[in-house]
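Example record used in the benchmark description.
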Amino acid sequence: MVSCRRCPRLVEWRERVARERRAAYRDEEYWGRPVPGFGDPGARVVVFGLAPAAHGANRTGRFFTGDRSGDFLFAGLHRTGFSDKAVSRTIADDARLLGLWISAAVRCAPPQNKPTPAERDACLPYAAREFEILQARVIVCLGAFAWDAALRLHNVRPKPKFGHGAEASADGLTLLGCYHPSQQNTFTGVLTPPMLDAVLLRARELAGTNGPKRAHPVG
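Model output (structure tokens):
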């Protein structure tokens, strides 16, 4: 997956961002490739996002690592017992997830954070393969794009409407809707820490687990 070049627009963008870099990270080497999922291979809960952030996962090589959205999400994962650390800034920080896997519908950073339907469909087989391997029971969909992608992946018809806290059944899984932890949502109060925690705790309840006895490195 990390060598995929199926979508010319995404390949051009992810590599241009990695080459030009943001001033704050000009001395860092960007990942600049498709981003793989990570976490506990025995996870029963999957957090399913939209796509890598241009200067977040496209830089660090790990979803929700090194950006504000990741800071907000990891703080919630820590409060609810899914992560042993409240912050994840680099792939070398030894953060560990417990009973949780993090993935996304699209694996390359898209321009303006907006993948096309064709790019989504080209990338979804990677998520499908992940779900085949994992023994997940719950998918927490961060935002409407991830919700629609998960429904498409599991061929759910008619499509249930996305909403924060929405639930839907698919192939023995439960899909949970959660507003995306983007700065647009977290800075305006659309998504608050208690709202995120409530969804994550509901995911734990539905998965029927208190988490594994040992944490798994996410790098």
